[in-house]
Amino acid sequence: MAFPDLLDKIGDLGKFQLLQNVALLVPIILLTSQNMIENFSAAVPRHRCWVPLLDNGTAQASLPGAPGPEALLAVSIPLGPDQQPHRCRRFQHPQWQLLDPNNTATNGSEAATEPCVDGWVYDYSTFTSTIVTTWDLVCDSQAMKPMAQSIFLSGIMAGAAVYGHISDRFGRRKVLTWNYLQVAVSGTVAAFVPTFSLYCLFRFLVAFGLAGIMMNTTTLLMEWTSAKSRTVTMIFNFMGFSFGQMLTGAVAYGVRRWPLLQLAISVPFFICFLYSWWLPESARWLIITGKLDRGLRELQRVAIINGKKTVQDTLTMEALLSAMREELSGDQATIKLSTLLSTPVLRLRICVSMLCWAHRGHGLPEQDLHPAPDELSGPPLHSGQLPGAGWALRPGQHSGASRDGGIALGSGSAGAGVSGEHLHLHQHLQWRALPHGAKERDSAGRCGHPAAARDQELAAA
């Protein structure tokens, strides 16, 4: 008797599989939020240099005539290439002549400027805090922001290469339980770290655990489902990625401080860690590794949950031995990377999978396509929610006990990482440089575009 026959006897799409799908769907939803969070927690708000005349109440009160915030902004901050207050430079000395209507040098281009040696003033109207405002990842340090996402993607690639082999040795459920705890602890600690380097370290550990969750969730579901029901099961599970993207936007809309947002998507993994102890281990893995007694108990347990109590008489040690011989004789040939690439069908599927994951990589660092959320034509909190349809793994694929398929997932994660790096190398691209950007800027003053009024708010800050 082969293992698929055992699944048919205990019920391959019954109450147990439904409960298992729901239990494993929740972490997938949260996992997607971890992937997308930096579209919000790493957003770059509008900013300018800190200047005494505007931001030091004592210095402003000592000025004769009490000039308004707009006037003080004009004499303190030069105009940038977009004719808006420069974000990274300030005048060394106030340029009072710029307030003279008869002055011809209206832009102060010849005046001496300096970097923002005293820090920056940020626009907190959209985001109360981000990692950019916390560690001043702007101007000369702006390359550090995409570096955080690159490190995160590297963690996914490394985790995909490691956790597949670990689960072969220690079991799917044990590794999955550890992954939940790892993501919960690392994500929670990341919300309280004092330095950017520690933040990147714990985000790497989060991503490392997320790769294990993705791989072992898929494996555990398919090894408890017969081939004819895997497509429905995996489609239901992959819906969690789209739900997670919608949830991320909703949570980010209500939680504008990045540490609280990080906690909101990390703490629930502690709950996943607790109930994961209820999940049964893969009976297929138990049988193949020779743990027949425990495999028999898990099969009997699932049969009871599915209401198949009458089949317990047929679930004998002899049946499991027969299933073990069937599995070992058919599926346990050693698979190397060269074998995968030399098979035409598998080679095609690996390439398609890499392209799909590369498309997903474009969705993760979407905020790098524009310098500030308020320069978009739509609400900034809608950013990063559209690529949900990009998840396209083949749900009916065969799942044996060997996890050399982790090579394929690792390759796909590499595609996501390379795609993300491609955007990071082009982070200097400004939204205003796109074909429709100039038209929007020209009409900003007439149409009441949010960017047109933002400078007045910054001047009054």
From TrEMBL:
It is found in: Membrane. Pfam families: Sugar_tr. Residues 368-421, 437-461 are annotated as: Disordered. Residues 452-461 have a biased composition (Basic and acidic residues). Keywords: Membrane, Transmembrane, Transmembrane helix. The chain crosses the membrane at residues 178-196, 202-222, 234-254, 260-279. Its main location: membrane. Residues 407-418 have a biased composition (Gly residues). One of its GO terms (cellular component) is membrane. Residues 104-461 form the Major facilitator superfamily (MFS) profile domain. GO terms for molecular function: transmembrane transporter activity. It is a multi-pass membrane protein. This is Solute carrier family 22 member 12 isoform X4. The gene is Slc22a12.
